[in-house]
Amino acid sequence: MARALLSIVVILTLGLVFLNVLLNDWNREFFEAIQNKDFESFGPLLLRFSILAAIFIVGAVFRLYFTQMLQMRWRIWLTRQFLSQWFDGHAYYRLEIGKDRADNPDQRIAEDLRMFAFNTLTLAFGLLGSVVTLVSFVGILWVISGPVALSLGAVNFEIPGYMVWVAVVYAIVGSVLTHFVGRPLIRLNFQQQRVEADLRFGLVRLRENSEGVALYHGEGTERRDLDSRVDRIRANWWQLMRFTKNLTFLTTGYDQLADIFPILVAAPRYFSGAISLGVLTQIGNAFGQVQGSLSWFVQSYGSLADWKATVDRLLTFQDTMDAARAQAARHTGINVVTNGRAAVTAHNLDLALPDGRVIVPHLSLAVEPGERVMISGPTGVGKSTLFRALAGIWPFGQGEVHVPREARLLFLPQRPYLPIGSLRDAALYPSSSAASGVDDASIREALEAVGLGAFVDKLDAIDNWSLQMSGGEQQRLAIARAILQRPEWLFLDEATAALDEDSEQQLYELLKCRLPDTAIVSIAHRKGVADFHTRHIALEPQPTESSALTAVAV
What we know:
The chain is of the alpha/beta class. The protein folds into two domains: about 1-330, ABC transporter transmembrane region fold (Up-down Bundle), CATH 1.20.1560; about 335-554, Rossmann fold, CATH 3.40.50. The chain contains 19 helices and 14 strands. It has a six-stranded mixed beta sheet with strand order 8-11-12-6-13-14, sandwiched between helices. α1 runs antiparallel to α2, α6 packs across α11 (about 300-330) and α15 (about 440-450) packs across α17 (about 470-485). The protein is elongated.
């Protein structure tokens, strides 16, 4: 379909150029009829113009229509390709925690890809039209402009098709001046896209954390931060305005002069009687077509600068994604192995930070089916990092994690992720009701069991549930997910820390009853939680300068 649309647009572009050639010939005949007061030819010429104009209008409309269709198809295809690469190998996660980060990936996927697809096709078809127009009209201009005799001292010589050479020189001078004046626009457009995306990110982040900001009364700080982002937009925009003004002075003057320039150059031959009024107007029209084709660079420089900035942003984003995916494909760092073992095991793990500093050295553990293990330790010793390594998403460090083949593992972080959508989707995430096979009655029963009875009638309500639920309610919903999904290994990273001790113990008792065969591994600090576990692993700092950690079984 894409190739068919491209072919149609190319054919329509060529057809419109051919119509311009016919209109150029009509232009000569029309003005010659006026000059000769040839009334008999006047009517048929008007009829021919009406037919050509009607065909031209239809062709121009459908060329735009099919171009827009192709632009959207290409944008959607590119977006899906980039999304696929972004998700592949947890690249979206690696880009956020690694040293080489691409700013605002959301803006690059949503906005830069749209601009790239639209501007690329617009510029490409504009260049195609200019090339074909140049080929079509350069011969016409060469013939009708004729030679011009010049003398340089005692030397007399003749320049054939002199108007063609005038158009070439005119376009070259304009192109060189345009590039010299407009070159800074590439850098400024790149920066403008970045600062605009920074402002949008700040606004979205404020909206998602509105309650925390309100509780801290942090409106002043947030306002100052957003004002600084706005100031960066304004400062960059002023520079854009300044260079765009200079470029517009040049291009507008260039275009205005181009309207009269060919008439001035050809006027001496007209006044000498060498050419007629019709030929003079045809020369002016043909010169405009040739000069316009040669001046595509001048006329499109602003769009080219914007396009180049977009391409640079997409290429840097592509490079960072490729690097993250390549790192995942090399299986460097912590390697997750799926095998036939019965337990989830970690062997000789060295957990490191993105800067390379090891925080947990030489850690080995095994979690048998149905076992209940509690992990504790001071803040920052690497408890959550250990869970990330077991989940296969932490790339920094060395060692191996062995997971039983086709094992069902579920990780519940301290702050659950709740997608924007129906409460049903939030309860079953990452599955859907169709894929999970869980009916609404089971969902309502699970919500009742975890203490979310007030929400059982809102399964079809679509909302941002992370803003509608308190932290404790969000953690209750995460426990309901575990009950509904029934994993074989359940990892809770302080997943009940927002609840009071009685509620926390009730939920652990619920997990113990509902998931009797599930292995539960908990990161927790309260003594009440320890009663629900049969083994305790304490991560403690080693008394060394490197602040390494050791695992002490309790």
